[in-house]
Design a protein that fits this description.
single chain; Elongation Factor Tu (Ef-tu), domain 3; binds guanosine-5',3'-tetraphosphate; 3 domains; 7-stranded mixed sheet; alpha+beta; Rossmann fold
Amino acid sequence: MSTAAAPSPVGKNAAPILEEARNRRTFAIISHPDAGKTTLTEKLLLYGGAIREAGSIKQRKAARHAASDWMAIEQERGISVTSSVLRFEKDGIKYNLLDTPGHKDFSEDTLRTLVAADCALMVIDSAKGVEEQTEKLFEVCRMRGIPVITFVNKYDRPGMDPLEVLSNIESKLGIHPVAAAWPLGYGTDFQGVYDVIGRKLHLYIKASHGAREADTEIFDLEEGVANAQLSESVKEAFMEECELIRDEFHEMDPDEYNTGKATPVFFGSALSNFGLDIFLEHFRNLAPQPQRYTDNTEQLRSLDEPFSGFVFKLQANMNPEHRDCTAFVRVATGKFERGIEVKVDDLSKKIRMTSPHTLMADDRSLLEVAYPGDIVALFNPGEFKIGSTVYKGEKKKYDVIPLFTPEHFIKASSKDPFRRKQLREGLQQLSEEGVVHVFEVPNGVGNELLLGTVGVLQFEVVQHRMLAEYKVEMHYTPVPYHTARWLPENEEIISKLKTAFSTHVTFDLDENPIALFDSAYALSQAIEKVGEENLFKFKR
Ligand code: G4P
């Protein structure tokens, strides 16, 4: 194994690999349902040139139930998007937008997807400010220290004033918001956006539902304000605010931005396309190029090393006729080519990647090559687990996917007492796939197991798959746990918590210790007893 100081094994393809990597931006949108993620995604495609006209996706959304938003866009527009990654290209930059399902689909998968992204685009509804799901997703960004770029949406509707939005972001998330754009008027008076970075005021002309790019006139600040159809008092207030924020972005500490401690904030309306031109122009430069990952020998790997990547998501086909499984791999280094032979984790056998595809929808287009930052969807021959490293050449291992703390718990047993063995086997398999956490029931007797998930829908998925794949009909019993924290493998801390107030210590099937608390008060007592630094929300 080479040392950190040794030169990376640069092959003859190194230069093209670095060149390709430089032109990629891999990001995920973090938002609360209804903030406008779907609308903004569609508009990114419109401004990115992937579609010529954006349509209202309203009726379809109502009709499609649990289907992915992007699948709906795909059906409507006939373009290639997927439930997991959407690719578009603008001005020579290839964007990989990773899906972070929300609503009922919110699960640990959503959180894990953020581990495969190099930055996050946080979309906030201007009337509602930072909401619950955004907070949860933001915590993962904070844990990873990745850049977060904010788009405050729906400025064409009455909402908070922009200064209020900034203080809302700061107080809810503890991140320093830095104005990168500023809205001129709001609600029905929303007429333009000041580009703080480029120091120009864009005035927009409304198009019906923003089906096409907005007609825009670009002015110097004073001239633009003079041209706006707004009252003098509104103009004056706007000029004062601009005076206040005009240097903020330019004075932002790049380190604060790169480590996710400061976020540039854009304002606009995804529906009417106001502010999108400014946002996209600067997003290209703000979104980082593919990051370099550190492997579990603490070596920072070079992007131009032979191919390696990690599995961040496994998607089983729920159709019993096609019980296949797809593994989503984030390319960390090198060039992936169709037909290459790869190794997985510690297994010695090589697996030939004959049919990698970029898409999950009905139309699976085959992928010939992929570079750092790209996502490859591979048929899972059974060897891939969540967090698996896939590599060519010298062995590599990335430990990048943490255990996320489950938020919902339920006790599970088999209705048929003779299928206890299958119950355990099936749940073990599903936990390896990252579908559910499985624990011994604290002080449990009999053959029950405790299940923990991030989203409640996962319990239904488990029930369905256990019946279909293991012929186990599950029986669920509610449990009263309020919250949980992973624990270090430290006997002293574990035994202290075993006797703590309303606290139950147990282990998952891989022997990871966890504490379950009956109430928020019990958690606060535990924090006093062993310190917050020993109660993990994320565990590597
Ligand atoms: P999501 O994917 O984050 O859940 O949000 P989505 O884009 O579907 O948008 C949610 C609703 O907000 C949609 O209304 C959409 O048209 C609207 N919306 C999105 N961006 C803007 C904006 O910039 N301005 C305004 N005024 N509205 C916006 P909807 O389809 O009518 O749904 P609903 O409100 O009936 O639920």
